[in-house]
Design brief:
Helix content: 25-40%
Oligomer: single chain
InterPro entries: Asp_de-COase-like_dom_sf, MopB_CT_YdeP, MoPterin_dinucl-bd_dom, Mopterin_OxRdtase, Mopterin_OxRdtse_a_bac, Prok_molybdopt-oxidoreductase, YdeP_MopB
Family: Belongs to the prokaryotic molybdopterin-containing oxidoreductase family.
Strand content: 15-25%
Largest sheet: 7 strands, mixed
Cofactor: Mo-bis(molybdopterin guanine dinucleotide); [4Fe-4S] cluster
Number of helices: 30
Protein name: FdhF/YdeP family oxidoreductase
Strand order of the largest sheet: 3-2-16-15-14-4-5
Radius of gyration: 24 Å
Structural class: alpha/beta
Keywords: 4Fe-4S, Iron, Iron-sulfur, Metal-binding, Molybdenum, Oxidoreductase
């Protein structure tokens, strides 16, 4: 039976299913209600208001993603006999879902090249091995990678360790997701994050949802979109695929929505993959033609407006239609809807950032907001929909190759630490360094670096070239089975709600929450902060200005953060006051921007040619399923797209016919980067002809390493492939 809406009774049934897996529904409910922030997406919930409560105090706010993550952390531990009987080859043959469901990691593990199995080792052996290897290397021969699953405290402490060790090769997972958002917003508005709070979204009367599918990946946003619709607001979805949950969603916590369903999108437009930039400029051109651009705002608050208006005049409709795949009449219709809005919010996800021109895309969105004065006022603004629950916080506390000058100066002046001034490498550059042999060791705080990389074949080879790779994780993933270094060590860590001391996280709305932590579920795993502080005391015992014993306590780390990170001053006392806070200087309701002169900056772009127009070609985007979160796959099925497996390529039936294929025929999907065999080609009427989708991270083997030159973000959504029968 095909699923015709997102959420609904299936979601309720799924809650009971996950409850049974965790031991009981009551046990799962109690775990979800603790005062800890959600472990999945950066929309955020929980903290001191209690689990399943959002920033506005609404309860219950819960989604399948949060349940899946919690139940994964409630799994039993993987016992030593498993590692003796299960070889690396057997692990490599497992799917991402099978690896995730093996259980919790509870012992440090080591793999040495030439061996066939992991072995369990003691914590002391692990610490000695790691410290000895890193001490033997030049700091520039190492990289330090951070996931958004960790706390602000762990992130800050590890980047501090990396820098006093002597390297700025400090990078995070945002380089592979929303770095283009940060760069684009910073270059346009002088801020790299959302300009609004959650309540602004619900006050808006027009929401643009561009290149994203929050019904699957950020389900709690659907409640806010329901409120927009009920007040008569418009929701304009721009996506090459008609996503079921963005058409109709049944919100389980709302009886009316549950029974009748909520119509989400008032308008739905499907450009070609890679056609967003042309579409955004077309909307602006239509606004100019209808005299709906706010010239007073542009002249009074923006730089570059004369060049911007001239560019709109110069662009031809023929070019915009050809490169977007959207007719002029639709662009004019979108502009007319926007022109009637009094409070508009622009939101987007990786359908915008995962392109070789991702920063241009974000700048074009910012242009659209500024050209009607829809930024710097209540109920209006820009909202990148962030992925992992603390990916924004990790960046805020200094996990970037180059520290913000204020943080750099404060660390040296306040605490007397000595910091390197070398130019650090971004994530992809670190992978290139590993492949060339210039980088010899890596340290990964959470995540799945192998699984998140483009060109999976290259990623495996690069990581295998390392002398040592250290990974701190709660469960197994593909990075523990592929691309293993000459020596690979896995350190089992506590989940957020098991930490012995409170930690903090930052939502995509710039709101900092306090997580209480809680009792450990299993013996063996250790706190991330404890592990990092222990390594610091061994690797840099005499680091100037740092007391590693004091750094075992998260309160000490928060004191440092409060003194060096702008806007984070209140974090120093958050464990005592329990006062969660909005970061100062990011959300603004006056058109006073964070640029040097306080004015917004309008950018002009050259619109790239539409790729994949050859007779045998398709434009491919890699996507997440409804049953996964980032690289973690919880379910093989993709419920909302009515797919029962992941080894498939979805394309329009017209493309099946054009390529001489039949539904469910076995094919090879290939390009110059790689190929995938035994893939099922399936007709899918909801996707725009000429385009296709496949599941991430499996399809990363087809994604080139070429990245946006401004953000270093690879083009996971702009892949040209050929599909041939087997």
């Amino acid at each position: 039976m095909n699923v015709g809406s997102g959420g609904g009774f299936r979601a309720i049934w799924y809650t009971f299913k996950k409850g049974r897996e965790s031991g009981s529904v009551w046990k799962l409910y109690k775990a979800m209600r603790t005062r800890n922030s959600c472990k999945t997406c950066a929309v955020g919930m929980g903290g001191q208001k209690g689990g399943m409560v959002n920033e506005s105090g609404s309860f219950p706010e819960v989604c399948k993603k949060s349940l899946q993550a919690m139940v994964a952390d409630m799994q039993p531990g993987i016992q030593p006999p498993f590692w003796k009987k299960t070889s690396i080859a057997e692990l490599a043959a497992m799917t991402p879902r099978e690896l995730e469901h093996l259980g919790r990691l509870i012992h440090p593990l080591r793999y040495r090249q030439g061996e066939s199995h992991y072995e369990t080792i003691t914590w002391e052996e692990a610490f000695q091995t790691i410290a000895a290897k890193f001490a033997s290397l030049r700091p520039e021969e190492t990289f330090w990678y951070f996931s958004g699953r960790s706390s602000n405290e762990a992130g800050f402490l590890l980047q501090l360790l990396a820098r006093v060790y002597g390297t700025n090769n400090v990078n995070n997972c945002s380089f592979y997701c929303h770095q283009a958002s940060g760069v684009g917003l910073q270059s346009s508005l002088g801020t790299g994050t959302a300009t609004i709070q959650l309540e602004d979204l619900e006050k808006s009367d027009c929401v643009f949802l561009i290149g994203g599918n929050p019904a699957s990946n950020h389900p709690r946003l659907m409640t806010s979109l329901m409120h927009v619709r009920r007040r008569g607001g418009k929701v304009i979805v721009i996506n090459p695929v008609e996503e079921t949950g963005l058409v109709t969603f049944r919100i389980p916590s709302d009886p009316i929505s549950l029974l009748k369903g909520t119509k989400v999108a008032t308008h739905y437009y499907k450009p070609h993959i890679g056609g967003d930039l042309a579409l955004l400029w077309g909307i602006a051109k239509a606004l100019k033609a209808s005299n709906d651009i706010n010239l007073d705002f542009l002249q009074g608050h923006c730089n570059g407006h004369e060049e911007y208006l001239a560019k709109l005049e110069m662009l031809s409709w023929d070019e915009l239609e050809l490169k977007s795949g959207v007719p002029r009449s639709d662009m004019e219709a979108i502009a007319a809807l926007y022109a009637k809005s009094e409070r508009a919010v622009f939101s987007w996800t990786m359908g915008i950032t995962h392109h070789a021109h991702g920063v241009d895309n974000v700048q074009a969105i910012a242009n659209l907001a500024m050209c009607r004065g829809m930024v710097g006022r209540p109920g209006s603004g820009l909202m990148p929909i962030r992925g992992h629950s603390n990916v924004q916080g990790i960046g805020s506390v200094g996990v970037t190759p180059k520290l913000k000058q204020q943080i750099f100066d404060a660390l040296q002046n306040e605490f007397g630490v000595e910091l390197p001034t070398t130019e650090g490498l971004d994530t992809l550059a670190c992978m290139e360094g590993a492949a060339s042999g210039e980088i010899k060791a890596g340290f990964c705080l959470g995540g799945n670096l192998f699984g998140s990389n483009p060109d999976a074949t290259f990623a495996g080879e690069a990581l295998s070239n390392l002398d040592l790779n250290v990974m701190m994780n709660t469960t197994m993933n593909t990075g523990h089975a592929h691309g293993l270094a000459k020596e690979t060590i896995i350190l089992p860590v506590l989940a957020r709600d098991e930490e012995p001391e409170p930690t903090t996280q930052e939502s995509m709305f710039n709101f900092v929450r306090l997580s209480d932590g809680g009792p450990r579920r299993l013996p063996g795993p250790r706190s991330e902060v404890e592990i990092i502080a222990t390594l610091g005391s061994r690797l840099r015992p005499d680091a100037k200005g740092i007391d590693w014993d004091a750094m075992h306590h998260t309160s000490t780390i928060r004191d440092w953060i409060g003194k060096v990170v702008p806007g984070y001053e209140k974090i120093s006392s958050i464990d005592k006051t329990k006062e969660e806070f909005q970061i100062d200087g990011r959300t603004f309701y006056e058109p006073q921007f964070g640029t040097p002169d306080g004015r917004g900056i309008l950018h002009c772009h050259s619109i790239p040619e539409l790729k994949g127009t050859g007779e045998q070609e398709l434009r491919l985007m890699t996507v997440r399923s409804e049953g996964q979160f980032n690289t973690v796959v919880y379910e093989e099925e993709d419920l909302y797209r009515n797919q029962d497996r992941r080894d498939i390529i979805l394309m329009h039936p017209d493309d099946l016919q054009r390529l001489g294929l039949k539904h469910d025929q076995r094919v090879t999907v290939a390009n110059d980067i790689g190929s995938m065999n035994n893939i099922l080609a399936r007709g899918y009427e909801k996707i725009r002809p000429g385009n296709a989708l496949m599941y991430y991270p499996e399809s990363n083997v087809l994604v080139a390493r070429y990245a946006d030159p401004q953000s270093k973000t690879p083009a996971f959504k702009g892949v040209v492939v050929k599909v041939t029968p087997q």
